[in-house]
Amino acid sequence: MSTAIPPSWPHCAHGADPAADPVGCRGIRIPGHTACLAHLADADRGAYLAGLTRGTDVDHRGTPFTELLLDALLNALRDPATGHARLGAAQFDSATFAGEAWFKSATFAGDAGFESATFQSYTTFRSATFQGHAQFRLATFHSYTGFESATFQGEAQFKWATFQGNTGFESATFQDHAEFTSATFQDFAGFESATFQDYAGFESATFQDLAGFGSATFQGDAGFESAVFHSDAKFESAVFERWVSLGPLVCAGKVGLSGAVFNGPATLSFATNRLECRRTRWISTAEVRLRYATVDLAHAVFEYPLTIAAEADPFVRPDGQPVAEQALAGAPGADAMVRMASLRGVDAAHLVLADVDLSKCLFTGTVHLDQVRLEGACSFDTVPSGTHWRHGHPTRFTSRHTLAEEHHWRASQPAAARGWKAAVPGTGHAGPTQLAPVYRALRKAFEDSKNEPGAADFYYGEMEMRRHDRTTTSPAERGLLHTYWILSGYGLRALRALGWLVAAMLITLVLLMGFGLPKDDPKQEATGTVPPGGGKVTFEIEKGDPQNPTGNRFTGKRFEKALNVTLNSVVFRSSGQDLTTAGTYIEMASRLVEPTLLALAVLAVRGRIKR
């Protein structure tokens, strides 16, 4: 209230100065007097206080209270049976409390009005009972404020209130509307174990420090639209009994929902650095829309579809304006990417992930991972790029998607190539035995969504883990897998298979020219026998055995013949060329090996283009 505007009630006007303060004291006059309680003569004040009894209505709007004056007032209203103050309708609008304000265990039988009141020192309403409406609109609390275990039976109105010190509403009970819209909490705000039986409104509220709602119970709607948390927002073990819409809100720290229970449908919209949902329970459908967040969903339980999706554009307030995100100025990544940190222990049968980054997600221990739905642009980590030295020779990894846990396992190996990312302490260890089923489940999830090319990388990862698994994979199987990997990258590397095919053809070509083709093509010889007395002549046509080559074996003519045999071998055809005994076996081997390599190359191409 402006110092130049007089209040709407008859006021004391003590200390009025036409130049400095034309209004003077704004305290309401005591009935029958021209001064407020603070400026009343001692005898008159004593008489007024002596006339008060428990449950009396009091009106001290605009009155400046010292600690002694407030104690005297509350002592006059104290119930002898309980030793606690009991007020009827109490009006303290625009009052100023210069000293400590102790309303501990007080009972307000009627409406309690503290609108625009100022509390300059320690203030407590611990265990107080407000049987009517509690009005603290625009109130200012300069120091610690405690409403622990307070009971608000009527509407609790803290709209536009400012709390400059620690604020405690722990174990408070709000039986009607609790309105904290546009309130400002400049220090710790504690609502742990509070009970909101009706609507809890924190729209556009500002929390400069930690805000604790742990174990709070929200039996009605909870509104946090456009709320801003400059530190952590903790809702651990909170219970939301009905449909709830949290947000859109902005949290520069961490939103903690670990152990929280959502008994009804839930819509959560957060722009935050981190969201922790360990052991969170969703009993109904839920949608979590996020910006910037890293999500830990370990051991969460949901019995109905749960969607976690990245929001590309800033959230929009009910008035159509975008939600300001200045509190997240230091958030990693300007693209507002949402990152999954862990899905361990989750039953993913009802989980939908849309446009999230899974490059650092921990998957081992996830149940029904093959039923997870990945929508939009969900990304995974990749193998290290470039050329790396291992065991004294260069190594280059073919590009593919990998799991973070494969990075962690490979980085822990003694001869690990540079580029594999080591595990963060405390994330546990998973080896090939645990990772092979994870790759298999993700492969099936991609195949079920008709994304065969996407499934190929996870098939490759599965085979890699089986090849390196010395616990459940036999040496013979590992040897077979190693051969399969060398020849064609498990049927997924076409260039590798084609390279081996070309090499096999060259070897076949050289061997045929050197040993397989005879010196000269055998000539047919006809031998006839004439009977002594004349008559019919009988001829026998024979072909000589091919002779092993001598002399210059690598000629253009021999190359042409060898090439003809080799190319026909690739497609299981016989060239009809006369061969030596060694050449026959060479051709037999090439007709087995080369078509197989060609088939592996075709299989690899098909795996990348099939839909």
Describe this structure in words.
The chain is 23% helix and 24% strand. With 611 residues, the chain is of the alpha/beta class. The strands form six sheets. It has a 24-stranded parallel sheet that branches. Strand 45 and strand 46 form a beta hairpin. The chain starts with 41 loop residues before the first helix and ends with a helix. The mean pLDDT is 85.
List the defining traits of the structure above.
single chain, 611 residues, alpha/beta, 24-stranded parallel beta sheet, 11-stranded parallel beta sheet, 49 strands, 24% strand
Extended strand count: 49
Mean pLDDT across every amino acid position: 85
The chain-level structural class is: alpha/beta
The major beta sheet can be summarized as:
24 strands, parallel
Helical residues, percent: 10-25%
- Distance between the amino and carboxyl termini: 71 Å
Round the Cα radius of gyration to an integer and report it: 42 Å
Instruction: Count helical runs.
Output: 9
Shape: rod-shaped
Low-confidence stretches: none
**Oligomeric state of this protein:** single chain
Our estimate of the beta-strand percent is 15-25%
Quick summary of this structure?
The chain has 611 residues and is α/β, with parallel strands linked by helices. The chain contains 9 helices and 49 strands.
